[in-house]
Amino acid sequence: MARTAPGKTKKDPGAAPVHSDPIPDEMQERVSKIHTRLRKAQPAPKVELDHENAWQLLVATILAARSNDRTINSITPDLFARWPTPADLAAAEQEEVEVVVKKSGFFRNKAKAIRRTAQAVVDDFGGEVPGTMAELITLPGVARKTSNVVLASVFRKSVGIVVDLHVTRLVERLGITADKDATRIEALLCALFPKRAWVDIGHRLVLHGRHVCTARKPKCEHCPINELCPSALSPSAGTWSERAAWEQVITESRGEVDPTTA
């Protein structure tokens, strides 16, 4: 029998997208096993963008588009030292902001984007980053992915699951879906994983895709979900628990420590 995801289509712009098609029992069971192993591999997952509050994470996430977290983490200390609040950044000169964020790529557009977002936070929310999806997506250039990152990481709210390029690649390799539409992928993942797990599974999928199931040369031999993946390129090494311990080290070190090469 196939299991149908519960719920009806919602018009609330802040609600999670709804997947209404039947979900095969085999897929649900396999995803549950994947979930178990990823929990073991990443007991306390978190976003790799350095931040002290919702405002800093919002800006860092916008800057991270088509860049990488390490680069953004090298930029934001100077950025927030110069313009610590939304009001400060909104009043900053465009050319000065461009200089600071230049290494992020597409720096002119990004400087403009974060200044526009800063102005909207000041004008519409009194200088405080809102804590709901419906409010966040009203900010210029802020869509569900960025909102999910902020809500999950700062507010610990289960309103959806982050879907980025890592997650899109990962769900295809795992045989969950070949769909490239982020909203439809998010809807399916929200149906497959219990709502209480949405915050952490979003982080886990991103981190697994970033450090283990990489775009080039995925580390299949050491992957804790190797046996559950139809795209595995090599046999697994050791038990899945041993591989989960390996993933915990490499993710918690942000890729700086690889036990297999140390």
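[next item in queue]
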Amino acid sequence: MHSQNFEDITDQEWRERLTDQEYHVLREKGTQRAFSGKYTDYKQSGTYHCKGCHTALFSSNHKYDSGSGWPSFYDEISPGVIQENKDTSHGMIRIEIICATCKGHLGHVFKDGPKPTGLRYCVNSISLQFK
């Protein structure tokens, strides 16, 4: 699926590929309620992929319990799979994280995570697919 140019996918095609809730988060920058996602307390070993394009984004080796109510990771699986954008919505200044391949909204990254990176990638479960 990576050979596809995701910039050419129309809004209607995204709506056909994703559930309404997945579309709202990935394409409209929505947010799941805290503690409502299926991967918040998930402990299996494996890889978390983008729900929109199946790109590998995070390893379970980098997942930790931040207590925030969303799956949290202290690093991306490999450099460049996550793109960062300044987000000034809701009266806050945050750093949005999106999939670098399909530009799907994942969540935000904060500088209050554990060592070695000090980062907390705070991700909507619905943006992810575990393999």
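[queue empty]
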